[in-house]
Amino acid sequence: MSINRECYTGRFIGGNILLYCPCCDKGVLGIIEDTFIHKSTKKSADDMEITGDVSCLDIKFFTFLECSNNRCKEIVVMGGIGKVEEEYESSEEQYMGTSCISSYEIKYIDPPINIIKISDEVPSCITDTIKDSFSLFWGYPSLVGNRIRTALELILNEKNVKSTGVNKNGKEYRMSLHERIKEFGKIKNGEYKELQKMLLGIKWLGNVATHGEEMKKEDLLNAYEVLDCILDEIFVRDKKLLGVKEMSHDLEKSFKLER
């Protein structure tokens, strides 16, 4: 499923949030009338009074959202920051004045939005870790990469990829994530070789995040899309394939007996 990136990386103006409900994944969230509260910090308001420059304003906002799905109607809490920009209005003939446009950036949502939809076939330990990363996406993007890295470790655990090796001196050691991903590429006669490359790409992002470096939301969304593909291939497609093989085997037994 392709992610609508504008919803996650841009600012919103007015009530145009365009995020899906975290509970039903069907309805669109909308601001509940009369719940949107926004205030400027005192210092920024004082600066604006002195300079007359509205771009000085440092705005904080808080609001309640409601799902548009009549069978759901879940309530979501959202908060964040805002700014004001002055726009000049003119026609071909004359200058018509200025208008102020307020835009807002989300820093907190509860319950967190499902950035990718995770199948019920995915083990709960992996699902919980990824959903934990969703709650951090808005305000703490650097921590998201760390959670995604943890999810990779859990995926390898579920596929029984070994976590220890033996060094040249014959001593057991704990394998790095990189080494484990390399081992993952060898299982099932190399069937996961392409997925191994995808896992390594996400691993590098996780490494950078673990060292506390700034993470761009665009890069995190790339990681989520790759992770979505990996989860589908390993836990959904594999199970479907197993079911199809079993049905094929049953058909073979039934019709061979008839002949």
Q: Could you tell me the mean pLDDT?
A: 87
Name the helix and strand elements from N-terminus to C-terminus, one letter apiece: HEEHEEEHHEEHHHH
Distance between the termini: 45 Å
Radius of gyration: 25 Å
Task: Report on the biggest sheet.
Answer: 5 strands, antiparallel
Proportion of residues in helical segments: 40-55%
Domain count, please report it: 2
Strand residue percentage? 15-25%
Protein name: DUF4145 domain-containing protein
Domain DUF4145: 137-227
Organism: Candidatus Nomurabacteria bacterium CG1_02_47_685
Describe it:
The protein is of the alpha+beta class. The chain has 2 domains: 1-114, no CATH class; 115-259. The chain has helices spanning 5-9, 42-51, 124-136, 141-158, 177-184, 187-190, 193-210, 217-258; strands spanning 29-31, 37-40, 59-67, 75-90, 95-110, 164-166, 172-174. Strands 1, 2, 3, 4 and 5 form a 5-stranded antiparallel sheet that branches. The chain has a two-stranded antiparallel ribbon with strand order 6-7. A hairpin with a 4-residue loop joins strand 4 and strand 5. Helix 3 packs antiparallel against helix 4, helix 5 runs antiparallel to helix 7 and helix 7 runs antiparallel to helix 8. The longest helix is centred in the C-terminal third of the chain and has 42 residues, at 217-258.
